[in-house]
Each structure stands twice: as C-alpha cells, then as structure tokens.
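Posting this for the archive.
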Amino acid sequence: MKRRSILITLMTFLLMGCQTSIEPEYGLVTWYLSNSTGTRTTLNIYDKVCERSHFRIRVPRTGESPLQTCANSEGNGEIRYQRTGGYSGSDNPWIHSTMRSNQTLMIR
C-alpha cells in the first residue's frame, strides 16, 4: 500500500512537469525592439493574437532586442505596449501596433 501511494505521488509530480503547447495557427513573427531614448527602458507588451502578456521587457540603451509574437492571418503580429513606471496610467498609455517579420519598433 505504501509503495503504491509513493508511486502515485511520483507519477503526479512527473505529469505536472509536462507541458503541452499548441502551435499558433499562423506561426510566429520575429521582430525587434530598439531604444532611442538614451536610457534603459522597460516595457509591458501584450500579444493580441495569442492573448499573452510579456511583462517587464528590458530594452537596453543601445542595440536591438528580438521578440516573437503570434502571427495573424496576414502574417503580422498585433501588439500593444506601454512603458512601465510612472505614477498614473495616463503617463504611460497603451500604444497599439502591427509588426511585420524582421521589422524594428523604435521606442522614443
């Protein structure tokens, strides 16, 4: 009896570690974030196609950061983003954008 309960507990933990993911219907779009503010910036990005949030994406002061989001039927990524920080939501409004593959989003 004791062996059986240990085996069931072990199998439960093993199955909890397994993750299944469903491939996006139209694949993924890889695009880039580029910072032109002169200081490090942190963004919250929401993928409107797969309905996923990417919190606190750090964009370095120089260079580009790649990001992948789900593609819509036209092969573009639909996102909205906002800077983090500030005292109110009006300081950092959500900005909607459509991204093509290999396109760069310039943060100002």
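The mean pLDDT is 84. The longest strand covers residues 28-35.
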